Amino acid sequence: MSSAKQEVQKLLEDAGVEVDDVTLARLTKAVEEGRSEDALGQFFRALGASGFSKEDIQQIVALAEKTESAEEFVDAMFIGPCPFCDSESTRSLTDEPGVEDPTVGECKDCKKLFCSECHSELSRKQPSCTNEECWLNQPEEDEDIDEEEPEL
């Protein structure tokens, strides 16, 4: 397996995305072919996310051109800039021992931890988002909500 293919597979696994061998090959090809709009369009089509507008893809291409590795690109896409100092130098703490959560971001400049979804400040002692408003803390549609059934 090529190193590019292994890197794409690891990034997808870290994000909780499972793909078959054909899709993995398509994604790897799109990554290897460069960061053109066409290559990224192929990438998103391979993931089954073909609803991106041309403007969306242009923004993604611009973001990809600023990054030096696939990991930096994924962090830029899913973590985004620091909500405290606006630095774009952020990373996911997916591989950080004691955190291991792809939704926790860390700013490389101000060193603050934050929820990538609601931008609440987090700490290493409490790296999970506790904001009740954050969609990460909302019950899933099929989860039982603590409501008692009415008596008949």
What does this structure look like?
The chain is of the alpha+beta class and 152 residues long. The protein is built from 5 helices and 4 strands. The chain has helices at residues 3-14, 21-32, 37-46, 54-66, 70-78, and strands at 90-93, 101-107, 113-115, 121-122. A 4-stranded antiparallel beta sheet has the order 1-2-3-4, with helices on one face. α1 crosses α2, α2 (21-32) packs antiparallel against α3 (37-46) and α4 (54-66) crosses α5. The N and C termini lie far apart (61 Å). The model has no long low-confidence stretch (mean pLDDT 77).
Summarize, please.
The protein is α+β, with helices and mostly antiparallel strands. Helix content is 37%, strand content 11%.
| Order of secondary-structure elements | HHHHHEEEE
Quaternary state reads: single chain
Mean pLDDT: 77
Strand order of the largest sheet: 1-2-3-4
State the low-pLDDT regions, or none: none
Overall structural class, as computed from helix and strand content, comes to alpha+beta
- Extended strand count: 4
User: What share of the residues does DSSP label as strand, in percent?
Assistant: 5-15%
Based on Cα principal axes, name the global outline: globular
Largest sheet: 4 strands, antiparallel
Number of helices: 5
Rg (C-alpha, Å): 18 Å
How far is the N terminus from the C terminus? 61 Å
Helix content: 25-40%
Question: Would you spell out the secondary-structure blueprint of this structure?
Answer:
Elements: H1 3-14, H2 21-32, H3 37-46, H4 54-66, H5 70-78, E1 90-93, E2 101-107, E3 113-115, E4 121-122
Antiparallel strand pairs: 1-2, 2-3, 3-4
Helix pairs in contact: 1-2, 2-3, 4-5
